[in-house]
């Protein structure tokens, strides 16, 4: 009987031990298909963006001080700075920031990745995006770092684009380890987006000073801009929508964005680049990425320009 128990325990532990070593190995080049590598590396562009924006917003400094080993020697972001945040908002932003550090580490533990690309996180860069969303320059120019409300509106720009990319990539991944990583990343990115949307939804009808424009209108305009830049129809929704676009066509409140079945929308890398470059063309860098995104997928579009 004792021998049977011993044999059983050995057999029980073998698969677990094998899986652990396979999935947490630092170098995945031998086990992750190249197509998976490309799809796992591409999100680093947005993860770098989120990590730096949230770190600077909460602390006034970024990866170069918090986790310099994750930058790959890439240039520091342009224009990022500590935001004027109330204690509650700062606490949430700091949590997001540290989560993004973990995301970068998890991706780079699975694939080699690439150095941090040049990011333009200046107030001017955000103002250009918001002006484009409204079709006219706001006066004074929108400054994401000037208040908690402005910072949350600027944050509305970030995790949602990333999560749609993870949704779009998941079904294309071939290895179980890749899918598990993306599922884990998607869960937290979706949570971040939900928190941001919920905080904004609570004040949806409040007017943003000094513009006299409601929070809901800001989100609706930004979502409409992302739909326009993506060139693939409706994949983005603001906080207040026509009733027929709400859940089951029965409600205008839209704290979470989703399709007719309340499933998350998906985007391809090409669509994401069109949005974050700010010009609707995946071949032309600009916006938050003055010199373009990195990784084989992003570079392939730049080379075809």
TrEMBL record:
It comes from the Eukaryota. The keyword Signal applies. Residues 1-19 form the signal peptide. Keywords: Signal. Pfam families: Ferritin_2 (PF13668). InterPro entries: Pigment-catalase-like. The keyword Repeat does not apply. PANTHER family: DESICCATION-LIKE PROTEIN. This is Desiccation-related protein PCC13-62. It comes from Acer negundo.
């Amino acid at each position: 009987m004792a021998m049977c128990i011993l044999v059983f325990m050995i057999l029980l532990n073998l698969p677990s031990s094998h899986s652990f070593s396979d999935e947490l190995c630092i170098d995945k080049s031998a086990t992750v298909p190249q197509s998976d590598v490309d799809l796992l590396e591409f999100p680093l562009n947005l993860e770098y963006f989120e990590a730096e924006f949230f770190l600077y917003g909460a602390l006034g400094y970024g990866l170069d001080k918090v986790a310099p080993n994750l930058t790959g020697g890439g240039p520091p972001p342009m224009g990022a700075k500590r935001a004027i945040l109330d204690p509650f908002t700062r606490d949430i932003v700091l949590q997001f920031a540290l989560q993004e550090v973990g995301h970068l580490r998890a991706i780079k533990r699975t694939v080699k990745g690439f150095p941090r690309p040049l990011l333009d996180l200046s107030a001017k860069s955000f103002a250009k995006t918001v002006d484009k969303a409204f079709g006219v320059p706001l006066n004074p120019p929108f400054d994401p770092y000037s208040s908690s409300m402005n910072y949350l509106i600027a944050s509305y720009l970030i995790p949602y684009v990333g999560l749609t990319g993870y949704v779009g990539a998941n079904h294309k991944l071939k290895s179980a380890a890749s899918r598990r990583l993306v599922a884990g990343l998607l869960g937290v990115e979706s949570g971040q987006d939900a928190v941001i949307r919920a905080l904004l939804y609570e004040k949806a009808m409040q007017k943003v000073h000094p513009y006299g424009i409601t929070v809901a209108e800001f989100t609706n305009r930004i979502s409409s801009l992302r739909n326009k830049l993506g060139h693939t129809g409706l994949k983005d929704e603001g906080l207040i929508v026509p009733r027929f676009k709400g859940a089951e066509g029965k409600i205008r409140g839209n704290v979470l964005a989703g399709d007719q079945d309340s499933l998350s929308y998906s985007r391809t890398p090409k669509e994401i680049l069109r949005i974050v470059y700010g010009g609707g063309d995946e071949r032309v860098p600009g916006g938050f990425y003055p010199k373009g995104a990195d990784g084989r997928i992003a570079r392939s579009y730049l080379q075809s320009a």
